[in-house]
């Protein structure tokens, strides 16, 4: 017959394990506090700026937001007749081949502006990343960019801060 041992029995039998368990619990609680704090900050930002389909400036510039946060750029022969958002539906029709323009990760010189994935690799400071993105499209809302950057750093393993 199999006997199940509880955590309390293990802690009583191996006191040195108790310290490890306490350390793990404290670390987990600390991580939970950090996540909760980040969530509350994110929630406060989102309440101050309306996110969603009713936010007209965001909807009209959604491609620009997407581009400044992208790892790569897409290059196609675009059908200009169909590529419009007049009726709230954007039709994207590709003629011929589809290309991804991926910037090399190594900078050629110090004066070169960072683009795409380079922004994520060369500058881990989120404020500097925001500034670099605003240099690309200066008319984008800084608060909205902060919300989107934070969302990516929390949910995307490729963007996750080191």
From TrEMBL:
Domain of life where this protein originates: Eukaryota
PANTHER family: ATP-DEPENDENT DNA HELICASE, DNA BINDING PROTEIN-LIKE
Protein name per Swiss-Prot or TrEMBL: 6212_t:CDS:1
Species per Swiss-Prot/TrEMBL record: Funneliformis mosseae
């Amino acid at each position: 017959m199999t006997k199940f041992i509880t955590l309390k029995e293990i802690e009583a039998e191996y006191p040195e394990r108790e310290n490890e368990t306490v350390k793990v619990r404290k670390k987990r609680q600390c991580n939970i506090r950090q996540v909760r704090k980040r969530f509350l900050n994110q929630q406060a930002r989102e309440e101050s700026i309306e996110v969603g389909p009713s936010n007209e400036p965001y909807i009209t510039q959604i491609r620009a937001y997407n581009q400044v946060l992208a790892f790569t750029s897409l290059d196609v022969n675009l059908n200009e007749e169909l590529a419009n958002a007049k009726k709230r539906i954007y039709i994207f029709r590709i003629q011929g081949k589809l290309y991804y323009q991926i910037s090399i990760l190594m900078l050629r010189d110090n004066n070169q502006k960072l683009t795409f994935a380079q922004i994520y690799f060369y500058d881990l400071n989120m404020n500097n990343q925001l500034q670099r993105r605003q240099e690309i499209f200066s008319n984008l809302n800084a608060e909205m960019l902060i919300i989107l950057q934070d969302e990516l750093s929390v949910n995307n393993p490729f963007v996750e801060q080191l």
